[in-house]
Design a protein that fits this description.
The protein is of the alpha/beta class and 329 residues long. The protein folds into 3 domains: 53 residues, 434 Repressor (Amino-terminal Domain) (Orthogonal Bundle); 124 residues, 3-Layer(aba) Sandwich (Rossmann fold), CATH 3.40.50; 130 residues, 3-Layer(aba) Sandwich (Rossmann fold). Helix content is 42%, strand content 16%. The protein is built from 11 helices and 12 strands. Strand 6, helix 8 and strand 7 form a beta-alpha-beta unit. The chain is elongated, with a radius of gyration of 26 Å. Bound molecules: alpha-D-ribofuranose (RIB). The site of alpha-D-ribofuranose (RIB) has 10 residues, from strand 9.
Length: 329
């Protein structure tokens, strides 16, 4: 394994000069720089990771930004991305951003300094103009940042229409919706899908839509109020499974039997949904597949000098469980 001393000897310079060339700091005339780079190539000398990334302009590292690491949806997503990037000999760093714009910008700038080769970003606060200075490929996952940035999402609106149609098909006659945060595009699309299916119904009441913030506790409190004020509600579609779990807990608190008095369906298909009591019916996102797809797009874009904008939309599927099936499964 060649050392920095071997390089210096071959290039007939000091080790300090070799270090200046590798770290691109301090003056080195072009002729000397050329001799040092030729010696490095000839000896196949690769310094530590940081120097390597400076010298080769790549780090073989990518970063994933998620807004809430405590939501089980995101670790399932991260697992797929890690599998794919590792297969391509890339390391992978996970950044929890709280969807906070300053935190995301700090991470972007710090990782660009460390020559990150690409980013996969789940964000509902970053805009295209925030990313203009990023010189490496970016793939927006789960939430679209801009039509000019590659993305991988699911059919949020039509998947929600399907969820409400399913609740109607099993006999629900008054259906409410626990919505995710209105500033999150996929939550707004799921709300649109719910409204597509109910806004023309004579029983529809705008109070049947309450916010659950994609959060268990917020959804639980909102569902308790909803079921107390509107006891006629016999179906609830929650915009994600964490809120669906909150609804199940709320139903128990107000004495509603699930599914006999109240049928409940969520959205995501996180593994924990199959372990709840009752188990949660859901519109399951192909979580592993959307993560893997985003990682494959990024790997392709990193390898190719020229690349266009990829826009992939995968399809959710209904998984029926005890929270809607009378008589259990
Ligand atoms: O449960 C977290 C939600 O945030 C999921 O529905 C996922 O789509 C992400 O946007």
């Amino acid at each position: 394994m060649a050392t920095i001393r071997d390089v210096a000897e071959l290039a007939k310079v000091s080790t300090a000069t070799v270090s200046r060339v590798i770290n691109s700091n301090g003056y080195v005339n072009d002729g000397t720089k050329k001799r040092v780079k030729e010696a490095i190539e000839q000896l196949n000398y690769l310094p530590n990771d940081v120097a390597r990334s400076l010298f080769k302009g790549q780090s073989k590292m990518i970063a994933l930004f998620v807004p809430d690491i405590t939501n089980p949806f995101f670790p399932e997503l991260a697992r797929a991305i890690e599998d794919v990037t590792n297969r391509h000999d890339y390391t992978f760093v996970l950044c929890n951003t709280d969807n906070d714009i300053d935190k995301q910008m700090d991470y972007l700038n710090a990782l660009q300094q460390k020559s990150a080769d690409g980013f996969i970003i789940v964000s509902s606060s970053l805009r295209e103009e925030d990313l203009q200075h990023i010189q490496v490929p970016i793939v927006a996952l789960d939430r679209i940042i801009s039509p000019d940035i590659s993305s991988v999402t699911v059919n949020n609106r039509s998947g929600s229409v399907q969820a409400v149609q399913y609740l109607k098909s099993i006999g629900c006659t008054r259906i409410a919706h626990i919505a995710g945060p209105e500033h999150v595009d996929n939550a707004a699309l799921r709300l649109r899908g719910y409204l597509d299916e109910v806004k023309h119904e004579d029983w529809f009441n705008s109070d049947y839509v309450v916010s659950g913030a994609y959060n268990f506790d917020v959804a639980r409190e909102a569902a308790i109020k909803l079921l107390t004020n509107y006891p006629e509600i016999n179906g609830i579609f929650a915009g994600n499974d964490l809120m669906g779990a909150g609804v199940l807990n709320a139903a128990a608190s107000v004495g509603k039997k699930v599914p006999d008095d109240l049928a409940v369906a969520g959205f995501d298909g996180i593994a924990i949904g199959g372990t709840l009591t009752p188990t949660l019916t859901t519109m399951a996102q192909p979580i592993y597949d959307i993560g893997a797809k985003a990682a494959e797009i990024l790997m392709t874009q990193i390898q190719s000098a020229e690349y266009g904008v990829a826009a992939e939309e995968l399809t959710v599927r209904l998984i029926e469980r005890q929270s809607t099936l009378k008589g259990g499964v």
